[in-house]
Amino acid sequence: AQLQESGPGLVKPSQTISLACAISNSSVTANYYAWAWVRQSPGKGLEWLGAIAHDGTLNYNPSLKRRTSISRDTAKNQISLQLISVTPEDTAVYFCARLTTFYFGDFDSWGQGTRVTVSS
Question: If you average pLDDT over residues 54-59, what whole number do you get?
Answer without folding.
Answer: 95
